[in-house]
Amino acid sequence: MSLSRPAVVLLSGGLDSYTAAAVARADGFRLFALTVRYGQRHTAELDAARAVARALGVERHLEIDVNLSLFGGSSLTTDAPVPKDRPPGDGGIPSTYVPARNTVLLALALAWAETLGATDIVIGVNAIDYSGYPDCRPEFIAAFEGLAALATAAGVSGRRLTIHAPLQSWTKADIITRGLELGLDYGLTHSCYDPDPSGRSCGRCDSCVLRAAGFAAVGVADPARGR
């Protein structure tokens, strides 16, 4: 693979997107990072995304405002309570699901990729240790690739887009292990769905529980614990 090959990476500031981006960098891609302020109330992740982008040495980092909170429908974009103290994935699709979020994010990444002449997009979705989101499944990623082939000038001219979801079948422990092998500083990341006003993680939401279980399985301390 040419070292000059660009890829657009969706970067949230969380553990998964950081690792997915690092995997792409290790595979030789030049990284163009896209962070979306979609109206999420846990804005601590935006600061984390900036820190992660700097650590990765991305070629360019764009932040875009697309306020999905105007639609409501999710406890991540409204004042509705975030589920806590429950087995992750238990009880169907949780209230933290943001309707069509990954569809919107991938569409934005697709637009930027086409203008860059890039045929690769990287996203940190995971279908093993996840909270029941339908837009994290392999079927969704495959369907969006098909859409991109039909919806873009690049696609109809034969330059098909590839969506890389390297973490798709990894457990949280697998993700952390690979990240540590790549020398990642997970102290830069933020995962909590419902941090306090200072940005301190709650330790009880689905995302916090999954993260804690992953570090426990690997047998290392979470460098961001208590933040």
Task: Give the helices and strands, then pairings.
Elements: E1 6-10, H1 15-26, E2 30-37, H2 44-56, E3 60-65, H3 101-116, E4 120-122, H4 138-151, H5 153-156, E5 162-164, H6 172-181, H7 206-218
Parallel strand pairs: 1-2, 1-4, 2-3, 4-5
Helix pairs in contact: 1-2, 1-6, 6-7
In the residues, how many domains can be counted? Answer: 1
In round numbers, the mean pLDDT is 92
The best one-word shape is globular
Question: Might you state the CATH topology name?
Answer: Rossmann fold
Task: Write a concise synopsis of the structure shown.
The protein has 227 residues and is α/β, with parallel strands linked by helices.
General description of the model:
The chain has one domain: Rossmann fold (3-Layer(aba) Sandwich). Strands 3-2-1-4-5 form a five-stranded parallel beta sheet, sandwiched between helices. The mean pLDDT is 92. α1 (15-26) packs parallel to α2 (44-56), α1 (15-26) packs across α6 (172-181) and α6 crosses α7 (206-218). It is globular and about 50 Å long. By secondary structure, the protein is an alpha/beta fold. It is 36% helix and 11% strand. β2, α2 and β3 form a beta-alpha-beta unit.
